[in-house]
Amino acid sequence: MRFQVVIPPGQSTYDNMAITYGADNTPRNGTPFMGWFRQHNPYNYVLLSLTNGLPFGLVAVDLADPIAPSYTNLPISFIGYRLDGTTITNTFVTPGGGANYFVSYNFSSEFASGLLSVRIDADRWAMDNLVWVAEPGVSALVVIGLLLVGTERILRGHRRAIHPQREGCGT
Known about the structure:
mainly beta, five-stranded antiparallel beta sheet, 1 helix, 10 strands
């Protein structure tokens, strides 16, 4: 999976992502996580897609405010761009109230398949444990179809060998 910072045309400043274990003022969960701060350009965002361009689905993600402790709720929107040209959105809200931990969220069923890319829209976020599902490409489906047809032919031939038809038998 590829994550990229998108800088719209005509914009000169940019923001960056980081992978960290956390520091004193960030959430920690014992594993490295990805963080994003939109500080320099209000139009920058993060886009994720598969490197081979095939469709995929999203199942779950752990999110937190990258500034800990977090005293305000932080909405983080995932905007999915689907194969059929439509878009879908899931917005998750981190708890605030002094939180310094990650919370697990599940994507809606619309996110389960058919995504070409997903835009993550928020001023800042910390993300870990993104669960995604790759969808089979056309060539994989063709191979599976050919295997099924071949298996059926082999089984049909095997059944004929075990139960040959009797010729000349009748009443």
